[in-house]
Design goal:
Number of domains: 1
Structural class: alpha+beta
Number of helices: 3
Largest sheet: 6 strands, antiparallel
């Protein structure tokens, strides 16, 4: 998930290994759901965009990756209310992740992360 890695680098995080469990970063871009990157386990990171529906937090989407030696392997995919898939050996999300990467770049999430760091 190159866009998420680039966003973390813009925020001063060179590697998920540097993050503590439950450490998270949220990037906001007007007109889009916020993007949150969170370390949810020693070797797991969640990347997701979320909204609230009837008081419930909904994923649109959320992908959980196992991080091993810098490689991110998707193991869980959720997009409410349509889809949920989980496979510890890895999911084939290459096409989806390629499109999402492009969208995050085009929507300005990397630029927003850069601006956030320069304003802090």
């Amino acid at each position: 998930m190159n866009a998420a890695k680039d966003i973390l680098q813009q925020l001063g995080v060179d590697s998920v290994a540097e993050m503590g469990v439950n450490e998270n970063y949220t990037v906001e871009v007007d007109g889009y759901e916020n993007l949150t990157i969170e370390k949810i386990g020693e070797d797991r990171v969640s990347v997701g965009q979320y909204y609230i529906s009837r008081g419930d937090l909904m994923s649109d989407p959320e992908v959980v990756f196992v991080v091993d030696s810098g490689d991110w392997r998707p193991v869980r995919f959720t997009q409410h209310p349509l889809a949920h898939d989980h496979d510890e050996s890895g999911l084939d999300l290459d096409e989806f992740l390629s499109t999402w990467n492009k969208n995050l770049r085009n929507q300005g999430f990397i630029d927003a992360a850069t601006q956030r760091m320069s304003s802090e």
